[in-house]
Amino acid sequence: MYNLIEIKARSKNSDKVRRALKDKNAEYKGIDHQIDTYFNVAEGRLKLREGNIENNLIHYHRPDIDGPKNSLVTLYKSNPESTLKEVLTKALGIKVVVKKQREIYFINNVKFHIDEVDSLGSFIEIEAIGIKNDNTEELRKQCTHYMQLLEVKDSDLVTNSYSDLLMKANNS
């Protein structure tokens, strides 16, 4: 289980974010074309991420609040060749599917995403990643530090997940 402090924000200038990460010698992992399939669950969120870099079954609890938020994440590395998606679809049903192009960067334990999400637009995410017992306040400080460095404004912050935003957009 991982403990994350994370933010999601609308991005008006992804090139500026890329330059700032490059200036800080962030490790570029590549561009991942991801399909996140969210399943119906009683608690938290459950998604199967299918990509060319990341393939995981992810269950997480995260409050829908403003600013940096704490997430408890359980991750299972999945095999893209498996029947896991079929099993989950039959057992739980699909809630929503989110498609995106994601650039992935790291600075030590902090992960950065520059996302282009189908039907939603451009976003940036910052995740300060720790293990279950890591100091949440230290992770929060890291996240806040990089928000300032990347000039993420409070007005750009997004409270909900891409799945919630997409479902809301589809119901409009």
Question: If you had to describe this structure to a student in words, what would you say it looks like?
Answer:
- This protein has 172 residues and is α+β, with helices and mostly antiparallel strands.
- The chain has one domain: Hypothetical Protein Pfu-838710-001 (Beta Barrel).
- It has four helices and eight strands.
- It has helices at residues 14-23, 84-92, 136-149, 162-170, and strands spanning 2-10, 27-39, 45-50, 56-61, 69-77, 94-107, 110-117, 121-131.
- It has an eight-stranded antiparallel barrel with strand order 1-5-4-3-2-6-7-8, surrounded by four helices.
- The longest helix has 14 residues, at 136-149.
- The radius of gyration is 16 Å and the shape is globular.
- The mean pLDDT is 95.
Summarize the helices and strands and which ones pair or pack.
Layout (H helix, E strand, L loop, with lengths): L1 E9 L3 H10 L3 E13 L5 E6 L5 E6 L7 E9 L6 H9 L1 E14 L2 E8 L3 E11 L4 H14 L12 H9 L2
Antiparallel strand pairs: 1-5, 1-8, 2-3, 2-6, 3-4, 4-5, 6-7, 7-8
